[in-house]
Amino acid sequence: MTHACKILPPTEANIDLCADLLRDEAVVGVPTETVYGLAGNALNEVSVRKIFEVKGRPLIDPLIVHFHSLEDAEAHVEFNDRARKLAAQFWPGALTLILPKKDSISDLVTAGLPSAAVRVPAHPVFRSLLKRLEFPLAAPSANPFGYVSPTLAQHVDATLGNRILAVLDGGACDHGVESTIVDLRDPAAPKILRPGPLSAEALGIQNCIQNSDTNKTTVPSTNAQAAPGMLTQHYSPKTPITLFAHGTKAQQVKETEAVIYTVKPCDSKLASETSNTFWLSENGELAEIAHNLFGLIQKLDQAKYTRLHIERALNQAIGVAVNDRLSRAAAKRP
Ligand code: TXA
Ligand code: MG
């Protein structure tokens, strides 16, 4: 296939161009504050089908619908008071809410579920695109199904560039991991379906049920109701991954293998440019670790190491999301 994709700087003219492509039922790569998305008209079945095709994603795995504002979202899903309050507080931002859908959202988007995942993103380029459009945008992460999520326009171009025409370049994604997903269909019992940049504490829903124990297998099923999207094996580079405990050293590392620590090692021999040792942050800051996670994994996946040994993050705040993605990336393929 030919590589037709253009990486477009976020000028007004290029944002207009992407808006026109989307009106013509095309899908394009878009920057968000979490990871890059593969966007299409959420209200048009041709566009939505293209998203699944380009990503190689099974139709049983539903999509997040992105809006410019809470008011726009209210036209397509049923908000309860608790959802409205959370949205008012955290949107635009890295929070996705699961709420009962209205008829305007097709079953294709929700994989037949009566509820939809909705979010108002914060990235200024994505917002500027949404503002121009007459429709919301369905957008999964812009990676081939099962692979590491993209945090640079170049990642999208490298993996999907022969299947799409354009990716808007909004720079490196701030958070680097996908939004926190909260099921708020029952306002009295919110449930975190996917940990993300906003922790349960930050959201003020500490007593919620957390679905982040990745050791409990959630199998890909033919029934979207059972387990939408929370596949145990996901985010996986081609290179196998072994995880080790936070604050410990990697064991039995062969010469052909690489080690990723969460913080730069004090040992200057390890921290030299030529060693096979890498790190996700200078001083252990969790936001920096998350920001660098997927990019470093993709870089080392190209470097042909035979294995990546990766240190788990401190399991708090966005570190919970980092560990969730790491567990899935390290899980054996079925
Ligand atoms: O940060 C993000 O959320 C990024 C950016 C592009 O917005 N998007 C993203 O989309 O991560 P995706 O498709 O890679 O992950 C969405 C997750 C999937 O696990 C999917 O199964 C789940 O959301 N999901 C979507 N609709 C759902 C629904 N109605 N009920 C339960 N889970 C749903
Ligand atoms: Mg994804």
Identify the bound ligands.
Answer: threonylcarbamoyladenylate, magnesium ion
Helix content: 25-40%
CATH class of the largest domain: Alpha Beta
Tell me the number of helical segments per DSSP (H or I, 4 or more residues long).
10
Number of domains: 2
| Low-confidence region ranges | 212-227
Strand content: 15-25%
CATH A-level architecture of the largest domain: Alpha-Beta Complex
The largest sheet, given as strand count, sense and whether it forms a barrel, is:
9 strands, mixed
CATH level 4 superfamily of the largest domain: DHBP synthase
The value of Rg in angstroms is: 19 Å
The N- and C-terminal alpha carbons lie at a distance of: 29 Å
- SS-based class: alpha/beta
What is the ordering of alpha helices and beta strands? EHEEHEHHEHEHEHEEEHEEEEHEH
The whole-number mean of residue pLDDT values reads 92
Q: What's the total count of β strands? A: 15
Strand order of the largest sheet: 2-3-7-4-6-5-9-10-11
Report on this model:
Its main location: cytoplasm. The chain is of the alpha/beta class. It has two domains: 172 residues, Alpha-Beta Complex (DHBP synthase); 90 residues, Rossmann fold. It is 28% helix and 16% strand. A nine-stranded mixed beta sheet has the order 2-3-7-4-6-5-9-10-11, sandwiched between helices. Strand 2 and strand 3 form a beta hairpin. Helix 1 crosses helix 6 and helix 9 packs parallel to helix 10. The radius of gyration is 19 Å and the shape is globular. About 5% of the residues have low confidence. Threonylcarbamoyladenylate binds next to strand 5 and strand 6.
